[in-house]
Design brief:
This protein is of the alpha/beta class. It contains 14 helices and 15 strands.
């Protein structure tokens, strides 16, 4: 059995806004979410400081959107304490399910799967616990610390709110997590294990502990994210979530759903080489596998959504792999790098970029790559750059190729297309 997998609903949360409409409005206007973020230790605490760019979610707006989507705050009580990791996932997930017209549908109970990709667990909850133990010398932490900080919590919370009793779990593969979640969800539907899948990713890593750890890696920019640009200095952390509703085509048609696209291909690979340095051969393997799975030749003009972190090491390796795969036909395609707008959402990034890519196809407009100072010699690609005025670049593609390459050499590529 191999069933066609279609897309019927999208939801997202990031520094750009709460919901797909807000997100697209900012992207189409050429606006980004990266802002200075400064925090210092309170008096009497061990000295620490955060000072750099970040793309933060409006936590209060996100919580209000979730409460409005649920309808009754009492429905959230069984979930216990919500780390921002789950808050983001629930808000994006409920938007996607509502957009798909699936809220309360009988298929949610038994024939639906939930797969969420997360790079790490509840960072805020763990930071609070450690602050009590090590900074305030207290002997106890909040009793909800473990359930709130579990990396699997977002999937469980979505299942509880939606009444989903099918396969429900989290996939953790660093920055490729939500690409793996979407791809594996696609295979579950293709094989008949589920009729519907709620899949995507969530991340909430803008905490002192996470920020300090990422800073120690030496890949963080001190100004902004400039993918494939000269004078780029590194990545910028963001946070948020993106969720997609996938269905078998038969199931979607039977219930009269509005089909907005198809998840046509998925390719994966492991570099098996280095924990932090990308490998061109591994990247090419994943891209080729996605095209083969989709039955779409690399020569077909496409919107190519890059991993595009803005780091000195990653961008030229990805650019070289793209050039090797697409060759001369690349000039007929359009390349975007949306981390320049929403930052690097780690485990949620792949799903966010896939949602943005599909929306761009539907609207015939590519969000411009922001903060670009001119092409770097080793990163020359046909980028969507704002011309006379900031804003989206017109495109006429029906296919999006979405790249995600993670620490540990874990690569995943998704290919989506508009309905035929």
């Amino acid at each position: 059995m191999s069933r066609k997998v279609v897309l019927t609903g999208f939801g997202c949360v990031s520094g750009l806004g709460i919901g797909l409409a807000q997100t697209w409005r900012k992207l189409a206007a050429g606006e980004g979410a990266i802002r200075p973020w400064r925090r210092e230790a309170p008096e009497g605490h061990p000295a620490w400081r955060i000072d750099g760019p970040a793309a933060r979610v409006d936590a209060e707006a996100c919580r209000m959107a979730l409460e409005q989507a649920v309808g009754d705050k009492d429905d959230l009580r069984p979930l216990g304490q919500l780390d921002p990791l789950s808050l983001h996932a629930l808000t994006a997930g409920l938007e996607a399910v509502e957009a798909a017209g699936l809220r309360g549908h009988p298929s949610l109970a038994r024939r639906t799967a939930i797969l969420i990709g997360c790079g790490s667990g509840g960072n805020a909850t763990m930071d609070q616990a450690y602050e009590r133990l090590y900074a305030r010398d207290l002997a106890k932490v909040h009793p909800q610390t473990i359930p709130a900080s579990m990396i699997s919590a977002p999937a469980s919370h979505l299942a509880m709110v939606l009444g989903v009793h099918g396969p429900t779990f989290v996939i953790a593969s660093a920055c490729a997590s939500s690409a793996h979640a979407l791809g594996e969800a696609m295979h579950m539907i293709r094989s008949g294990r589920a009729d519907v899948a709620i899949a995507g990713g969530s991340e909430a890593c803008l905490t002192l502990g996470s920020w300090t750890a990422w800073s120690a890696v030496g890949v963080m920019a001190d100004d902004t994210c400039r993918p494939f640009s000269k004078d780029r200095k590194g990545m910028v952390l963001g946070e948020g979530a993106a969720v997609v509703v996938l269905e078998s085509e038969d199931h979607a048609q039977a219930r009269g759903a509005n089909i907005v696209g198809e998840l046509a291909g998925y390719g994966t690979s492991s570099d098996a080489a280095d924990m932090t340095a990308p490998d061109r051969e591994g990247i090419e393997t994943a891209i080729r596998a996605a095209h083969e799975d989709a039955g779409i030749a690399p020569e077909v003009p496409a919107l190519i959504s890059t991993h595009g972190t803005g780091t000195r090491l990653n961008d030229p390796v990805e650019a070289a792999a793209i050039r090797a795969i697409y060759g001369r036909s690349l000039e007929a395609s359009t390349v975007i790098a949306t981390k320049s707008a929403h930052g690097h959402l780690i485990g949620a990034t792949a799903a966010m970029e896939f949602v943005i890519g599909m929306e761009a196809l539907a609207r015939g407009a590519a969000p411009p790559v922001l903060n670009h100072l001119g092409a770097a010699p080793d990163c020359d690609l046909p980028l969507a750059l704002a011309q006379a005025s900031p804003g989206a670049v017109p495109i006429d593609h029906r296919v999006v190729v979405s790249n995600s390459f993670a620490f540990g050499g874990l690569n995943a590529v998704l290919i989506g297309r508009l309905p035929s």
